[in-house]
């Protein structure tokens, strides 16, 4: 589905990713775990083409093309979605207006009929209810004054409406209380359809009680150092990252 | 990296910078009594008007140019400006308007030919120093509404002009207003009689064409008891290397229960990114809410000019009268704007609202300057001011100078101000959600201006949005 080969990337002058290889399988949930500073967020930013990250070497093959040669919005239009760790506030831009534009841009790109305002509101209301969000999420400005939990649910709302093919969740679980964690996880599980690919970046194993990964990768010092199944999480939980490192 | 792209888009060419080659009567540069006599004679004015002009010139000669605004520009040499330029053929009807002028207006999207006229909008077209065409005058006349050039009004309705001209902006109000009083050439006159609701938008389009010429128009709008009028003003100028002077005066009078809505889309040539060329825009606009329950609302979208000095104000004299000021001011390239409003509360229970949105990009400098004054008798006066600034890129500036003067302890004044930046994070967020960089900037800027745009009449809101897109297309990174 997506093949990351020998990726080197830096932020400013600092090399963060140092020859990372990772192959994401169609329809599978991949989890990346690692300590602070290991390069988890840099990896997610590199995939979506964030300005902060400069990729110096390597490639990401996706749908037969090198993703790294595409503009951020082209990557998005081709189905690559990032749920941001800290979604930015955009005052004055209505949440529903923004999201309909995002959806219409995708529909246009794929030559589909654009969802009109009435249809869109119906769709948005349905998802808002499902996620246990307040109805005023339609009229509020994008992330403006949202609580941490509201921001994360709003990311999941966007994911559900935009129906992407590769979904990167960057610490979607951080700062969530148990109820929010549950509804966010339910949103993610609703999206599983055997076709979509997930890349879940997390510090904690807590969310893995709700979404069940197919593969777990350990990221250390800019490289994937170990890949396994869900059992790897148990080892990590019991013995910590050092145990995994010792294994190498 | 992205900043370069933004700057590239921001420095896009001014789209209305063309000029047309027509035979014009242009008076030699310089300002003296002879020039006033020339203008007055050209316009076939009554003697009393010439006397007033000469009086204004004498006063002006004793005054000096104000420099308290946050503006930095090469001084104007008032003796090198030509104070009158008019197309040679004075038109009596549309058939006589020079075809090149009609074409010029066509290019600006303002067709003046009857069969092509904009539906429901009456237009007065002012080309350099003269009004070349006023549309729909006859239709309006049936309702008793006078909509004509100010020159015509002086000849046809001297009693109204004498009564109201200089009644809101006194002849010697300030340096630029005094200059205008001496040399004003054309402009629009509107009178809406008692109880009449003007059924269409009235609009004036000001175009500077001639080189080295200033434009000094005067607009006078009177809404008699219980009447309503919505008036719009648009402007543009050719792209030239030297600076051109524009010093206008607008006076509004709203009698008891009357309402005037005045909207401006200002798109004079802004000069280049080094600050070369562009219009110096020194404008005095003031409205008097004379009667009780009257209302005056200013909405302005300022995207052009190299220098803008402009404070559309309301004098709230009648009890329960309402003043509003909604403004979007954009400074890009090397533009500077010092703009805002004055709300003078005199009557009881008067209310005013100020919403100012300043957008600065590239090397633009944007200043909000506003005064809210509550006089001793203005019990129950209320004001709410909101001044927001948006910065695009690292080299621009935003400044806010709110002045509050309350002489009545029962007045209520609220002021809010914010400054924000379009950040890389915001742009990236929107791009990650399928939205192109240009659309992302436009979305953020429009979100920022929304409160003001909703105040504009429909057609003008569309124009304002497009203009904003042109001025700022794709910004930031």
Structural account:
- The complex is a heterodimer of chains A (248) and B (477).
- With 248 residues, chain A is an alpha/beta fold.
- Chain A has one domain: Rossmann fold, CATH 3.40.50.300.
- In chain A, 36% of the residues lie in helices and 26% in strands.
- Chain A has helices at 40-48, 72-77, 95-109, 117-130, 148-162, 178-191, 231-247; strands spanning 2-11, 14-24, 29-33, 53-62, 65-66, 80-83, 166-170, 197-202, 215-220, 223-228.
- In chain A, the strands form 2 sheets. Chain A has a 6-stranded mixed sheet, with helices on both faces. Chain A has a 4-stranded antiparallel sheet with strand order 2-1-4-5.
- In chain A, α5 packs parallel to α6 (178-191).
- Chain A is globular.
- By secondary structure, chain B is of the alpha/beta class.
- In chain B, α10 packs antiparallel against α11 (458-472).
- Chain B starts with a helix and ends in a 5-residue tail after the last helix.
pLDDT averaged over residues of chain B: 84
Largest sheet of chain B, in brief, is:
11 strands, mixed
The proportion of residues in beta strands of chain A is: 25-35%
Largest interface: A-B, 29 and 26 residues
How many separate structural domains of chain A?
Answer: 1
Instruction: Indicate the low-confidence ranges of chain B by residue numbers.
Output: none
Structural class of chain B: alpha/beta
Name the poorly predicted regions of chain A.
none
In CATH, the topology of chain A is named Rossmann fold
The percent of residues in helical segments of chain B reads 10-25%
Tell me which oligomeric state these chains represent.
Answer: heterodimer
Helix content of chain A: 25-40%
Please identify which CATH superfamily of chain A we are dealing with: P-loop containing nucleotide triphosphate hydrolases
Strand content of chain B: 35-45%
Number of strands of chain A: 10
What is the CATH level 1 assignment of chain A?
Alpha Beta
Distance between the termini of chain B: 7 Å
Order of helices and strands of chain A: EEEHEEHEHHHEHEEEH
Number of helices of chain B: 11
Rg of chain A (C-alpha, Å): 18 Å
């Amino acid at each position: 589905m997506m093949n990351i080969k020998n990726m080197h990337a830096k932020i400013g002058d600092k090399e963060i990713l140092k020859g990372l290889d990772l192959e994401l399988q169609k329809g599978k949930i991949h989890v990346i775990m690692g300590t602070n500073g290991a390069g988890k967020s840099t990896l997610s930013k590199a995939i979506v083409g964030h300005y902060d990250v400069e990729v110096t070497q390597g490639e990401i093959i996706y749908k037969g093309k090198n993703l790294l040669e595409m503009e951020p919005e082209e990557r998005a239009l081709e189905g690559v979605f990032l749920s941001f760790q800290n979604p930015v506030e955009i005052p004055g831009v209505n949440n529903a207006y923004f999201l309909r534009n995002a959806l219409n841009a995708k529909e246009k790109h794929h030559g589909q009929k654009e969802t009109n305002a009435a249809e869109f509101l119906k769709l948005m209301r349905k998802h808002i209810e499902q996620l246990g969000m307040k109805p005023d999420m339609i009229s509020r400005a994008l992330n403006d004054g949202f609580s941490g939990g509201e921001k994360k649910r709003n990311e999941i709302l966007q994911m559900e409406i935009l129906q992407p093919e590769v979904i990167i969740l960057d610490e979607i679980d951080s700062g969530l209380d148990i109820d929010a964690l549950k509804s966010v996880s339910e949103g993610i599980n609703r999206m599983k359809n055997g076709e979509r690919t997930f890349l879940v970046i997390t510090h904690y194993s807590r969310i893995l009680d709700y979404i069940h990964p197919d593969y777990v990768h350990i990221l250390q010092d800019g490289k994937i150092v170990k890949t396994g199944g869900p059992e790897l999480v148990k080892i990590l939980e019991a013995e910590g990252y050092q145990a995994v490192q010792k294994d190498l | 990296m992205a900043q370069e792209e933004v700057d590239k888009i921001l420095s896009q060419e001014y789209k209305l910078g063309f000029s047309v080659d027509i035979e014009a009567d242009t008076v030699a540069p310089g300002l003296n009594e002879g020039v006033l006599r020339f203008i007055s004679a050209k316009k076939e004015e009554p003697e009393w008007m010439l006397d007033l002009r000469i009086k204004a010139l004498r006063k002006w000669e004793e005054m000096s140019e104000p420099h308290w605004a946050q503006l930095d520009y090469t001084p104007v040499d008032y003796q090198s400006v030509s104070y009158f330029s008019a197309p040679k053929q004075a038109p009596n009807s549309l058939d006589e308007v020079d075809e090149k002028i009609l074409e010029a207006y066509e290019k600006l999207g303002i067709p003046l030919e009857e069969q092509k006229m904009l539906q429901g909008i009456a237009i007065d077209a002012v080309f350099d120093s003269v009004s070349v065409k006023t549309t729909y005058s006859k239709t309006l006349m049936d309702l008793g509404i006078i909509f004509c050039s100010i020159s015509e009004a002086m000849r046809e309705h001297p009693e109204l002009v004498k009564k109201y001209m200089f009644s809101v902006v006194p002849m010697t109000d300030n340096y630029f207003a005094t200059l205008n009083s001496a040399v004003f050439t054309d402009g629009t006159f509107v009178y809406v009689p008692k109880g009449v609701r003007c059924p269409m938008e009235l609009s004036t389009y000001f175009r500077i064409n001639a080189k080295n010429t200033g434009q000094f128009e005067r607009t006078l709008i009177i809404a008699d008891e219980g009447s309503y009028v919505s008036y719009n003003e648009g402007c543009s100028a050719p792209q030239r290397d030297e600076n051109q002077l524009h010093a206008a005066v607008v006076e509004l009078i709203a009698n008891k229960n009357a309402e005037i809505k005045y909207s401006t889309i200002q798109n004079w040539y802004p000069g280049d990114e080094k600050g070369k060329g562009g219009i110096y825009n020194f404008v005095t606009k003031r409205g008097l809410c004379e009667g009780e329950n009257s209302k005056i609302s200013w909405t302005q979208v300022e995207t052009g000019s190299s220098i803008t000095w402009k404070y559309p104000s309301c004098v709230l004299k009648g009890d329960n009268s309402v003043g509003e000021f909604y403004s979007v001011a954009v400074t890009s390239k090397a533009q500077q704007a010092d703009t805002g409003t004055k709300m003078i509360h005199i009557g009881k229970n008067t209310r005013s609202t100020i919403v100012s949105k300043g957008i600065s990009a590239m090397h633009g400098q944007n200043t909000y300057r506003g005064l809210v004054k509550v006089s001793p008798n203005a019990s129950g006066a209320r004001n709410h001011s909101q001044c927001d600034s948006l910065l695009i890129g690292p080299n621009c500036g935003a400044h806010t100078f709110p002045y509050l003067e309350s002489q009545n302890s029962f007045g209520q004044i609220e002021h809010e101000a914010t400054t924000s930046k379009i950040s890389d994070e915001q742009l990236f967020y929107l791009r990650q959600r399928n939205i192109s960089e240009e659309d992302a900037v436009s979305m953020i800027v429009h979100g920022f201006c929304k409160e003001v745009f909703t105040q504009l009449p429909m057609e003008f809101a569309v124009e304002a949005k497009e203009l904003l897109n042109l001025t700022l297309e794709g910004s930031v990174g």
